[in-house]
Design goal:
- The protein folds into 3 domains: 3-157 and 165-227, no CATH class; 232-318; 323-370, no CATH class.
- The strands form 7 sheets. Strands 1, 2, 3, 4, 5, 8, 9 and 12 form an 8-stranded antiparallel beta sheet that branches. Strands 6-7 form a two-stranded antiparallel ribbon. It has a two-stranded antiparallel ribbon with strand order 10-11.
- It has helices at 3-11, 49-60, 85-95, 100-113, 216-222, 231-246, 252-268, 280-290, 294-297, 300-308, 315-318; strands at 20-30, 36-43, 70-74, 120-131, 143-156, 161-165, 170-174, 180-181, 187-191, 193-195, 198-200, 203-208, 277-278, 313-314, 323-327, 330-334, 342-347, 350-355, 361-364, 367-370.
- α3 runs antiparallel to α4 (100-113), α6 (231-246) packs antiparallel against α10 and α8 crosses α10 (300-308).
- The chain has 372 residues and is of the alpha+beta class.
């Protein structure tokens, strides 16, 4: 699923859209020892509005349009064998959350395979979305995209605090003993994916709240997919490659220009289902265009292979939305629109960072100052 497709499902994840139905919700609670303590299947038709809205609010957080938080994975061939993750998800989907035995198997599968510290709740909804097709551009019919959306929400006793007792008019410390389930999922997944305006049962979308530290056990053990590097890991690997290839020629201009070129690639492919990737050949072309010495450019392939084993990197994970220049005691944040106003130079034997200022009036700590 690309960002546009995720946005479409997210936008229509509401009864107000007219094309969406959340039919049933399966809830389960798994304790710290990985025991399934409870399981319930709720009908959304008879559910109180306030409860329905709460489930909708929680589940919608999984449908993140941040491509670094919501990632598509392909199931390996063996994942569809009986009792394997894809088979479990497929049968749960086909059951429409009406079969108790399938629901039990699903919750037990999560409990037995997840690496999750502490207790947590599993909230899974069976939903359908009517895909409208334009006359002339598509066949003149409607397709129903049916899917299950799962949120894994951690639970704890919350923070201690003080409460006011109206009956005694006293203020005292509250002892928290009840487990409070977070409305913000730590992890989640969508199955099957919505790709090219149709259903794809061979892929699944994984959501993580913590982009820097995704829960690998959800991807590999619960979903049965091969984990790929996190966004932060890919960026760290790319920075290592860039340092190894360019060496002493690495400067502000090279870093800025490479970032701009990768951003162009991301923009050109934003509506494609497949994510834009950066491999050693593409990076080699970028560095050649920038003017990096040829002997340095030739080091791209061996350095790339040493760091990534020639596995391509996701372009969107490598882009910096702003340039940050740091030195001892100094940090300068530069937006892309102002990137060309920064230069490095040597003045009177001292290395300097120069900032071009068109307007002589600037602000220092919020106060206007005029440069003479």
């Amino acid at each position: 699923m690309n960002k546009k497709e995720v946005s479409e499902i997210r936008k229509n994840f509401s009864d107000q859209s007219g094309f969406f139905v959340m039919d049933k919700v399966l809830t389960g609670f798994i304790d710290a020892e990985k025991n399934v303590r409870c399981k319930n299947i709720h009908s959304c038709i008879t559910m109180p509005v306030s409860e329905h809205d709460l489930y909708e609010e929680t589940l919608k957080k999984v449908l993140s349009t941040n491509t670094k938080a919501f990632t598509e994975y392909e199931f390996p061939n063996e994942a569809y064998d009986e009792g394997k993750p894809q088979d479990i998800l497929y049968r749960l989907l086909k059951s429409e959350l009406k079969d108790e035995e399938t629901a039990d198997e699903f919750l037990n599968h999560i409990a037995n395979n997840i690496g999750f510290e502490g207790p947590f709740a599993v909230i899974t909804a069976y939903c359908s979305y009517t895909v409208r097709r334009k006359k002339g551009e598509f066949l003149d019919d409607d397709e129903i995209y049916r899917y299950i959306l799962t949120a894994l929400c951690p639970a704890d006793t919350g923070k201690d605090g003080f409460i006011f007792d109206n009956s005694t008019e006293e203020l005292f410390k509250k002892e928290n003993t009840e487990l409070i389930i977070s409305k913000a999922p730590a992890d989640g997944f969508l199955y099957p994916v919505f790709s090219n305006r149709s259903t794809d049962v061979n892929h699944v979308m994984y959501y993580t709240k913590n982009i820097k530290e995704p829960n690998i056990s959800v991807v590999e053990n619960v979903l049965g997919c091969n984990f790929v590097m996190s966004a932060q890991s890919e960026k760290t690997a790319f920075q290592s490659i860039l340092r190894g290839v360019v060496g002493d020629d690495l400067d502000y201009t090279v870093i800025k220009t490479v970032n701009e070129k990768i951003q162009d690639i991301v923009d050109e492919n934003k509506d494609n289902t497949e994510k834009a990737m950066i491999d050693s050949d593409l990076l080699k072309d970028m560095l050649t265009d920038i003017g990096v010495p040829q002997e340095r450019v030739e080091m791209t392939s061996p350095v790339f292979e040493k760091v990534c084993g020639n596995a391509p990197l996701t372009a969107s994970n490598l882009v910096d939305t702003k340039t940050v220049v740091s030195s001892a005691g100094i940090t300068v944040n530069i937006k892309p629109s102002a990137a060309d106003k920064i230069r490095t130079s040597v003045i009177d034997g001292r290395k300097c960072l120069l900032i071009d200022i068109d307007d002589p009036t600037i602000e220092i700590n919020g106060l206007p100052v005029t440069l003479e």
